[in-house]
Amino acid sequence: MEKLLSTSVRYLKGIGPKRAKSFNKAGISTIEDLLYYFPRRYEDRTNFLAISKLQAGQHQTIKARVLARGERKSFRRRGFSIVEAAVGDGTGKLFCVWFNQPYLADYFKVGTTLVLYGKTEEYAGRLQMSSPEFEIISGDADESLNIGRIVPVYSLPEGLTQRSMRQCVKSALDEYLPGIGDFLPYDARSRNSFLNLAKSIINIHFPDNLELKKQAYQRLAFEEFFLFQLPLALRKLKKKEKLGIAHKVDGPLAEGFIARLPFKLTAAQERVIAEIKEDMARPQAMQRLLQGDVGSGKTVVATIASLLAVQGGYQAAFMAPTEVLARQHYDKISHQVTRSPGHQDREVKIILLTSGATQKEKDRIYQEIKQGKVDLVIGTHSLLEQGVQFKNLGLVVIDEQHKFGVGQRALLPQKGPNPDVLIMTATPIPRTLAITLYGDLDISVISELPAGRLPVKTLHFSEKDKLPAYNIAKEQLRQGHQAYIVYPVIEESYALDIAGAKKMHAQLAAGEFKEFRLGLIHGRLKQKEQDRVMLKFKERELDALVSTTVLEVGIDIANATCMIVEHSERFGLAQLHQLRGRVGRGLAESFCLLISDAQTQEARARLAAMVKYHDGFQIAEEDLRIRGPGEFFGRRQHGLTELKIANPLTQMQLLKLAREEAAKLVQLDPRLEARPNGLLREKLLQRFPEYDKLMVVG
Question: Strand, helix or coil at 563?
């Protein structure tokens, strides 16, 4: 089957080497690529709309004859041409215009029959379509692909027309479809009343009716979800098969730490800790994703998990993406743990390992880790260095996992005997995409903030009316609180924005905020200088901090109650939410003041979402809605390229069904060795060659 489908499109009737290059540029190299190159829309040409019934403001399809045509030059723009055609169908007349495409005049000979699709508008007292899509109806006896049916409309490879594209697809269907077997398990198809593959492919391109088109769409969307979920189900099963560490989860070290915390854990934290304890007690390695909003208390949960490993004689490693964040975790955890309660003679040894350490310091730390003298190592990518060897690594914690590559995430657990892994993120992921992308992980969510925390009050100000925002910030400073004033960095003009932050710092220090002590921090400062400024801010030697996005992660100062975000339209929604999370970490009312003259609809939607929503998961859902599933994570990085027709945003139930069916199949045939699953195994390895290891015994 795969050999058949992997045939180059150049050998298909009507294509050849030259046209094949155009197909290749459009991502169509093989017959399978062509069959899975789905239409972007359809036109119902069984019954065209009469011109007399056209409504302004709507996209509509008509069939009409050219009554007159002409070409003229624009008076306003030199060298700019306008092609016009008047068309009619016996019920009325419509005018069509195309801009700067003079060659079109040759197509529209009087008497030519056209199918036109576009948005109808009223212009100068007449109905008009501007730059409509068109197709010339030749009058040939065989118009079966283009007239009198539901017709597919494709995004065209260069040099092709809709008619020639339809003919190429039809040729591929006629020649190759009879030899294609269905790789979806029969039981799954039968249970869910899905069409078979051949019927689905035919009806996604040339549907007999709208109901069959819908059924074909359902089947092919399920297929994509299923092929995406199956490797995750196999990977999850493989991890469970491999023996890990059964940790001693009951003991005075973790219990005493919880008892001595100066605050009460939230119900959500307690629930997540119970899930982690249950995982760690099992002899299979834990693979858990911990999601929690900014300030929800993920770090203390990770600390408790680390102590569960340490009290049984194992080591824990805690990896953060930046030195600032690693140092903050080290300071916070060291302060909280100090000496373990109940074992006063047993000190929990915690060290920090970052690239900033000297080679002499690193060598000493390496030796202590290897000898087992260190219980918890907190660090950055430095933990992945070859010199870092653990005596008995039992738990790996990875913070802000999306900042690390997939390969990097896999390296640290390899330094131990199949240790438990806890992956944390403060970037809320809609459950829809969490299931799609992390189906091999168990997911825990800290869904509430600590008691007493108030939502950060978020307000939007225009650039010309921003003085009220400054007044709110100044009032907070006069009450003894602190503030951040954030200035964006644009990658294309980094130096310019640093200069802007410096200029802004100078202007504010001499103007609106002259009565206060202002600091300046940005990414071009050396690490020691950044640390020095941050320490001054932490020790309240500074009232406000003018900053670029360097403070997006890693700063936890309870006295900071106000943030001004200048040019806030330049930030993504998730980034704005992360920034807002730097304030409101104490018990006082806090403010996030967005200053922007957003021009685009998307930017305005982001700012409106920030004002309306406070919960990170609602923000993430809104971000997904605004940007779509592809852009939310970046398709290429996260493998969403496989989803050509399926949409996790609108087909959540189908995604869940695919996940359930994948789990059922893996339970029955974990190696896909059964004869009926041969085609499926072949398809899976074609899409994901790296999963070959998952289907080999051992």
Answer: strand
**SS3 (DSSP) at 683:** helix
Q: Are residues 489 and 563 in the same domain?
A: yes
Spatial CB neighbours of 637, under 8 Å, sequence gap ≥ 6 = none
Do 332 and 269 share a structural domain? yes
Give the CATH number of the domain where residue 274 resides: 3.40.50.300
Do 132 and 70 sit in the same domain of this protein? Answer: yes
Please tell me whether residues 482 and 407 are part of one structural domain.
Answer: no
Q: Give the sign of the dihedral formed by CA 392, CA 396, CA 397, CA 398.
A: positive
**Interacting residues of 367 by C-beta distance below 8 A, sequence separation 6+:** none
Spatial separation of the C-alpha atoms in residues 514 and 264, rounded to whole Å: 41
pLDDT tens-digit map of 8-20: 988 888 888 888 9
Residue 462 to residues 470, 489, 647, 657, Cα–Cα distance (Å): 12, 20, 36, 46
- Tokens 């260190």, located at residue: 374
Question: Reading across the β-sheet that carries 442-446, which strands appear in turn?
Answer: 350-353, 376-379, 315-319, 393-398, 420-425, 287-292, 442-446
pLDDT tens column, 615-641: 887 888 788 777 765 555 544 344 454
Q: Which domain holds residue 412?
A: 252-282+297-425
Number of domains in the chain: 3
Is 285 in contact with 412 (CB distance < 8 Å)? Answer: no
